[in-house]
Amino acid sequence: MNDPKHFELSRxxxxxxxxxxxxxxxxxxxxxxxxAFAEARNIVDLIRYDAAKAPIKLHRLRGNVSALEGSGGNxxxxxxxxxxxxxxxxxxxxxxxxxxxxxxxxxxxxxxxINTHWHFDHASGNDWLHSVGAKIIAHENTRKHLSEIQRxxxxxxxxxxxxxxxxxxxxxxxxxxLKLNGASIELKPYKPAHTDGxxxxxxxxxxxxxxxxxxxxxxxxxxxxxxxxxxxxMIAASDANLAAATNNTIIIPGHGxxxxxxxxxxxxxxxxxxxxxxxxxxxxxxxxxQETVAAKPTAAxxxxxxxxxxxxxxxxxxxxxxx
Length: 323
Ligand SMILES: [Zn+2]
Fold this sequence. Notes:
Bound molecules: zinc ion
Order of helices and strands: HHHHEEEEHEHHEHEEEEEEEEHEEHHHH
Number of strands: 16
Structural class: alpha/beta
C-alpha cells in the first residue's frame, strides 16, 4: 500500500482504489490502470469487491444536503421530515457503511432514490435502498438499461438485468420538480452525454448541483458509447452544467473530489474541448486509433487529468471513437 500509484488512486477516492493491488495479485506485477482495465477481465467484480471494504466519507454541504464518498459514484443526500432522498445508490456492498453515514445526519427513513444514470457504480445499491422503502426515480433510458442485458464494450462486461426491486418505478423524459423536505429538487435530463439516460439534480435553495457522470472532477471521464454516450455529448452537457451554475453553486461530480465549483467545472469543459479538437484533427488526417494514441494529443493535460483510472491512452481512444 506504499506504492505511490496506489496512494494516488486512493486519494482520488474512487471505487477503483484497490484495483492496483488486485491487478498486482493477478498479474505478478504492478499495472497501470489502463493495463489493469485491459487485463483484468472481471474489473467490475474487482470494483464490487473493493467497495465491500472501502470507508464512506461524509461531506456536509449546505442546508440539509450532504455528499457521501467512497462507494463508486459520489452520492448526494437530502434529509428531512419527508424522508431521506438519495441521489445515486453506490455499490451494493457498501450498504452498512452508507447506512452508518446517513444515520449520522438524521434518523429520517429512506424514502426516495434518484439515479443519475444506469451504471453499476451508481445503481447497484438500488435493490437494498428499495427494500428499506425508497421509491426509485430515473430517466426512462436508465430504466430500460437496468431492465435488460447490457454489454459495455470498453469494460468488456455483460451486465445482467437488475432484480425487480432495483428497477425505477417512476421515469422522466422532461424536466420535473419535486418539493421535499422544504427543498425544490429539479430533475433535468441531459441529451445523450455520458450515457443516453443521464440526468442532473439541482437543490434550488441550497444552490447545489449533482451532475452525475457528465462531470469528473480533476480526472479524465469514462464515456459509455455502448449506451449512447459521446465526447460531443459530454461537452454539450458541460455547457449545460456551466449555464446552470453560478460562482456560489456547489457542484457534486460523479467522480473525483465530491465538493466542486464552477471554476473547476470550466477547467473540465475546456480540457474536453481541447482534446476533442486535437484528436479530431489527427483522425481527419487519416491516423488510426493506435497512431492517434501514439501522437499523445492529451499530453498538455495529462499531469493534471491523467493520473487516474481513465489514463491518457484510454481517454484518447474514447474521444477518437466519437469524432
Ligand atoms: Zn457512469
